[in-house]
Design a protein that fits this description.
The chain has two helices and eight strands. By secondary structure, it is an alpha/beta fold. The protein folds into two domains: 51 residues, no CATH class; 46 residues, no CATH class. A four-stranded mixed β-sheet has the order 1-4-3-2, with helices on one face. It has a four-stranded mixed β-sheet with strand order 5-8-7-6. β3 and β4 form a beta hairpin.
């Protein structure tokens, strides 16, 4: 091993929107004081309870990823206890549905406010 994953950083037009959206979805503290996770000006950091650190950074001229296109390289799986209720609740923080999962809310794919995809997953 030559290193450890420090955090995942999402490029976006406005760093605050994805950070607050994911905070409502997975909890944690946005931009709290912790010098270990300062990623630079124009960045917002979301730290959870023992989970991964997620940062978003404002990038001028950012273009949202297009689902299924070559430039979409990843998506997040977010484990939820009640996928039916989570499917509705996930839309309130600014997420938009991309795919209804064939009618199964736990398989539906959503996009955060900057267009990054995530899927609700069963425990």
């Amino acid at each position: 091993m030559i290193g450890r994953l420090r955090c995942v950083v999402l490029d976006c037009p406005d760093a605050n929107e994805p950070a607050l959206s994911y905070q409502r979805l997975i909890g944690g503290e946005v931009d709290g004081p912790d010098p270990r996770w300062t990623v630079g000006e124009g960045c917002v950091v979301l730290r959870g309870d023992g989970g991964p650190v997620l940062a978003s950074q404002s990038v001028p001229g950012h273009r949202s990823p297009v689902r299924g296109a070559p430039e979409q390289r990843f998506h997040f799986d977010v484990r939820v206890d009640g996928p039916d209720a989570a499917g509705e609740a996930v839309l309130t923080p600014g997420a938009v549905p991309l795919d209804d999962g064939g009618g199964d809310p736990a398989r539906g794919v959503h996009a955060d406010p900057a267009g990054h995809p995530f899927r609700l997953a069963r425990p």
